[in-house]
Each structure stands twice: as structure tokens, then as C-alpha cells.
Protein 1
Amino acid sequence: MNGLEIDPFIAALPKVELHVHIEGTLTPALRWKLAHRNNIPLPYKTYEELLDSYKVTYNHRREVNGDNGAPTFLEAYFAGCQVLCTEEDFYELAMEYLEKAQSMNVRYTEPFFDTQAHTRRGIPAEAVLNGYLRAQRDGAVKYRVRSNWIFCFLRDESLEDGLEAYRAALPWARTSDGQGKGLFHAVGLASNEYNRPPMLFEEAFLLAKKDGLHVTMHCDVDQKDAVDHVHESIFQVCAGKGAQRIDHGLNALDREDLIPGLKSRGIGLTLCPHAYHRRQATETLFPKIRKLWDEGVKFCINSDDPTYMHNVWIDGNMMKAYHFCGFSKADMATIVKNAVEMSWADEETKGEILAELKGLVEAEK
Ligand code: ADE
Ligand code: ZN
């Protein structure tokens, strides 16, 4: 599906990932292993059948596209989540991701996670949070990949449910009172956006801001009301101040006030080109990304849900942008710099990555 060799320059770039759902990194191999370890039945008799199930083109959203008999992406993704049961499972998932991140020269990452997809299956939130916390600490030492995580509200669940999940998770946050365990430092949204605009969760965003957390907003591409959701994210959420980042947000190109809004408010987009390339032709998609660049919109390149998206990770996504947008090596370095600047890493981490990037760019001259 990718069909592109990763250029050595792209491979060598020190990377920052700001848009990856941790459960979207669950490999078929780990899924198979955990299903057996936890006695979770899978609807596949053999490992090969499980692998084959990833080869379908998912229905983007049944509400938007109608039923073509294929599962939606979210159905496949939540089916994968079923095998995650114990603290050790969440730890292994995160450690595998951090190991993979290290192999791609990712130096710093802000993975999305949620507890609601797991607590509604009867898994205690502590198992999720402690597993990720342990991996955050061990991964920084073992793989030298630092991470600050992002708690997501499942937007197709109620605000009340989300608030309850948030309150339960708060002791694991890095709150401004310095009391938390330091796993996550931001909140965002995940799951099905259909008829679930960001403003439904305004109370939760205000609470998170009061607790000293950052706020980012998922605005999926070509959803019903996508343009309105981007508008809310720029101009309405957080008492009109807007979100600090927008995840995806490609439809900002579709209404004239949105690009100026992104720029004047300094809101960057976390783009995931391969996720869109699954559904948009090369000639349609990459000129849009190029237009954002030419308009001066800040963005970085990320992976979203790599194991459910043909195993295309951040390096494959960067390669697609490099190849299909006609970006130069200097442009790709700027995209990494954007990611550093859009991140909420500490200044020391940012400085180290920027220094490494500068060294690489100078060696290329
Ligand atoms: N949760 C995990 N991956 C997601 C995606 N790509 N869109 C919406 N919610 C998600
Ligand atoms: Zn996403």
C-alpha cells in the first residue's frame, strides 16, 4: 500500500510523533499472543486468517458512506482492543510501540490513549494507566524515547461518562499542582465524530485547562460537518480561545476563514497523510497538503493507527509527504522542527532534538 522505500535521509531524521493512538499500534502478532494468554476468542482460526483481516479496505464511516459489507475502521480497531486486559498487556503494547519508535529515530512522542474503551469492557482504569506509566518510565531508559501522553474522551460516549473517566485518571496526570504521577499532560478526543462536535465536551476541556493540561482537538477528514468542527476548534472551544493543536483538520482548506484562523492563533495541524491516502487519490490529496504548506499553515507528519493502516508508520508517512508533495530535505527538516515546536515537551528535550536535527541538516550540505 505504501510502495515507497524509506529514503535514508527520512530514516535518519530525528522524529517527534504527535498523533498516534497507542491501541492503533497493536500488531497482529501481539494481538494473537494476548488473545491466547487471556483466553479471548478471536473470529480467526489461524494467524494467517487474522493477518488477512487487515488487508480489507475499511468502510470509512457507515453513517457517511453507507454499508458496503466491510467493517469500519473503528470496528476493527475496537475489536483489536478486546485482547488488552491486564496491566502487563498495556505495558507490553506501549513498550513494543516505544521500541518501534526508537527503530525509526523517534526521540519524543505524545501517544493518545483512553480508558473508556477498556473500562466499558470491565477492565479497571488502573490497569491501563499503570501499564502505560511503567512503559513511559522504562521506555525512556531502555529505548531512550521520551513520552508525554494524551488522555482522550471517547466523543461518541456521553460527556458525563467522559468526565467520570477523566476524574478517575487525574492522579496519573501532570497537573499544575505538581501532585500527579506525570503520565499525561493533555486531553483530546477520539472515536466517532459523526454528530459529535467538539463543543459537546467544552466543560471537560475547561476542567482540563484548570488542571493545567493542554488541549488538542481531533477533526477527522471529510466527516459530516467537518468544516464546522474545525471552526469550533479554532474559534469556540476553551471559552473561545481555541484548541492548542488540531489533529488532522485537512478540511480547514474548505472555508476561507479557517486558514487565517489557524495562522493568527498559531494552531498547528498533526497530519497523517497515509490515513487520507487510503481514501483520496494521490493527485487530490498531496496538492492539499502542499497548499497548507504554501499558505504558511504549521503542520507536522504522523502515523495515526499504523497497524490498522497497512503498517505505514511515521517514517512511511514522512516519506509520502517528501515524495508526493515535492518537499526538499530542508522542508522535511522544517516539518520536524514544526513538530518540536508544536509539542509540549520540556525545553531540554526540545533543545536536544533541534540540535540533532541541525547536525543532520549541516552534514547534508
Ligand atoms: N481512535 C483511534 N484511532 C482513531 C481514528 N483514526 N479516528 C478516530 N478515533 C480514533
Ligand atoms: Zn487520530
Protein 2
Amino acid sequence: MLIPFLASSQNSKPNIVIIYVDDLGYGDIGVNGAIGVKTPNVDELAKNGLNFTDAHSSASTCTPSRYSLLTGSYAFRNNAAILEGDAPLIIDTKKETLPKMLQKAGYKTGVVGKWHLGLGNGKIDWNNRIDLGPKEVGFDYSFLIPATGDRVPTVFLENQRVVNSNPNDPITVSYGARIDGGYPLGRENPEMLKMHTDPYHQGAITNGISRIGHMKGGKEALWIDEKIPFVLSEKATSFIAEEKDNPFFLYFSLHDIHQPRIANIKFVESSTMGPRGDVIAQMDWCVGEITKALKKQNVLENTLIIFTSDNGPILDDGYLDYAIELLGEHKPGGTYRGAKYSVYEAGTRMPTIVHWPAKVQPGKSDALLSQVDLYASLASLVNQKIEKEAAPDSENHIDAWLGKSKKGREFLLEEAFTYGLRMGNWKYIKPKNKPVPGWITQKFVDPGFRKEIQLFNLDKDPSEENNIAENHPEIIKKMEQKLQEILK
Ligand code: NG6
Ligand code: CA
């Protein structure tokens, strides 16, 4: 017997929402063992969805992971690295992207939140429409934090124009020389600061917080950090309300839990871990706003939500918010070794939940998956072929993403300051005979590279403590061959 409701939901394309949290570690959510902060909305998604234990961002920093997510291409192919706030767009607008592919499949596409993929093609004029950005990459609608919360300009862009810009107070940005008449600097006016920082974040002060870079003008356009979660959630839920009758793709890219971690008063002291825990609670609230909006518009049932993060956790990334001191027993990376910037597992092994009531059975999956595969997997889901030269590194694992199969990738690349490669539960780390970059040494993070080969068996040693490279020359040979093939 055909049940009419099921028949229709099987035929109609699901809405797709990627909730992309910034710097959230594997262990930072309740269902994965968080201590000291509660994440009821994320836990609810996990309870009614599929919780992945071995799904990865493609890199252990932001820009490279986002680049791979949207292009299906490894970041090294384009030398994608962390970008400054005035960097040019790094996605080739002639190539197909994930949102362009979904547009062809009839989707309305929107991005709300952190961008950090560059804008324009050289010198950006912040006082007019910026000519290269999300629109040219395939998003019909955009509302952006241009780079990161700790980089100028601290203004929102809606459809590539600064929100509340004023021609009489034009915006100038510099990542080099100081700007005459620009905002005061953290290193000269520490008395103006709400939160102190390391020397790298002592540039322009806006809203009482010093950032990387110099900025002048745009006084009425400056964001208030404490309101960011509300502004972004409102824009995301409006997009859902507006597009509820189309299939839509929303890339909701939260600012939380990146620094500066300045929680709204609603969330201050909602954890026992200080600002870092409070913004985890704030992030969780944003997730709840999205599910509530989907429910309200009656589209939750047929919406595929993918909740995940761009790179591993970091405690001290430059702002003095006592994340280390207040951590307690909480383990941001779960049992995994490493952090943001690291090639060890916690650098890329992300909290990952897939929720689609109409199609996905609740449960857990240990399939080995990479976000670079979402492109080909979603293309398969919506019956789109992948254009020539597009998404060269993306594999179709839609059955694994939807829990119909436990089999994911045979090999998985982890990009960091060196390369990691997974083959089942083997983990190989390419040697690198260079000193750790200076600023990394100040972050209490081990980026994981050594001058000798590292090999771990994650079955027996999930925390990558025992390097067994010497005992397994044949495994190393196979993995090095594969890595060479990928990197050539
Ligand atoms: C680093 C910044 C750090 C953070 C990171 C980007 C310094 C010393 N550190 O270069 O503060 O902004 O870039 O984080 O400048 S990410 O999540 O967007 O990759
Ligand atoms: Ca990040």
C-alpha cells in the first residue's frame, strides 16, 4: 500500500542545511562526552539522527576545510591557507561548486555566517558592492562575517554590501601599515579592552575588543560581538521562512566557538568553563533556533541537516579567556590527541551528526568519512552529474552519510602543517624536518610533525601514543605510495 505522505516525501528533494560550527572539538558536545557544558539541542539532533565517530574535516584549519567543503577539492591543490580579512576570493568562479551544483538541481542557496574564503580580486572597496564573493560561487543569498571574528573589518556583509555603511564614513582596512585616523590599537590602549590578548591580536579595537589588522570608518556598521549569534540565527531562520516552498540549501556557518569568545549575557556562566564553555552553550542555542524554524515551517521532516565543525578545538588561540585554567575534566578533543592546527586525530575528527527524519534511522556510525565527499555524495542524492574538472577529490559516499552502509573511505587525507593519511584504522604521518612555526609554539598545541615517520594503529591506540612505524614497513610502503598518488 502506498502511504501518500511517504510517497511525496520520497519524491521531493530534501532541503539541505549544513550547520558548520567553528573550532568545535569532537568532545565538545554532550553526546560525545562534554563535561561542564550542556548541549541539549545538539544532543536532540544526535538522538534522532546519526552520530558519526570517524568523520573528518579535510584540514585542521578553517579556510582549507571550507575550501574543500565547497569545491570537493583538497586545499593543497590551491595552496589554500588561513586568510587575512582583505584577501581575494580563493575559489575559481569558473569552476562548479557545491552550491552551483545544487542550484542546477533546483535549489535556492544561501550562506549565513563566517565566510573566510576571501572576497574580490585584489584591493577590496568596502564601500560598494564587492564584486567577487558568494554570489559568484553559487549562493543566491549571503549574509557574512567576511573572515573571522578576530580580524577586521568587523562588519556584516549582506549580498556583498556592508550592512549600515555610510558614504560619509567610508571603511578602510589594512593588514600592513597603520591607517591614519583609524581605530585605536590594543597594544597602545589596553585600558579600552574587555579582554586582553597576545601580541598578534593587538590591532584595531572595535566594540572593546582588539583584532588582527587595522581599520578606519564604518562606525555605524560595526558589529557587536555579543549580538552575533542572534543576528546570524535571525538571518538563517528568515532564509528558511522565505525559501520553505523551494528545496533550499543553507550553509549556516556559525561564528561560535571561535575567538574572541564573547558570550551574550544570556549565556554568561551557563557553563563551568568560562567563555569557551559559554559560547558552546550559545552555539547550541543557535542550533535549536534552526530546528525550531524548520519545525515551524513544517519542513523539518524532509530536511537533511548535517551538523559539524571546520577544525579541531583550541583552548588558547590568543585571547585571554582562561579556557585552559577553567577546563576542569572536560576533553575538547574527546579521547583523541591533538587540536586545531594539528595532524593528530583531534585536528580533523569532527563532531558530526546527520539528521533527516524522513530517511535517516537514528544511531551511530563509525564510517570513515571526509567533508570533501559531501559534494559528490549530495550530487548523487539530488541526481546531478559532476561537471568535468569539478570536485576532483570528492567521493560519493551517500549511503554511508545516510546510514545505509558502514563503509566509507578506503583512504582519507588529513591536511595540516604536514599530511596525515588514514587507511582503515592505520594512521600515517608524513615526516617534516622543519621547526614548528613560532606562533604555534605559543598555543600549547603540538602540530604533530616529526622528522621521523609516525604510524599508529587506532584500533589499539586511539590516542596516537605509540609510534609503531618500525614494525610495519609494508603498511608504510603502501600508505606512502597512496599519499604520493594523492599529492602528485
Ligand atoms: C591564526 C590566528 C588565530 C585564528 C586563526 C584562524 C594568529 C597568531 N593566530 O593565524 O587567532 O584567527 O588564524 O582560525 O594570528 S580559523 O579557525 O579561522 O582557521
Ligand atoms: Ca575554525
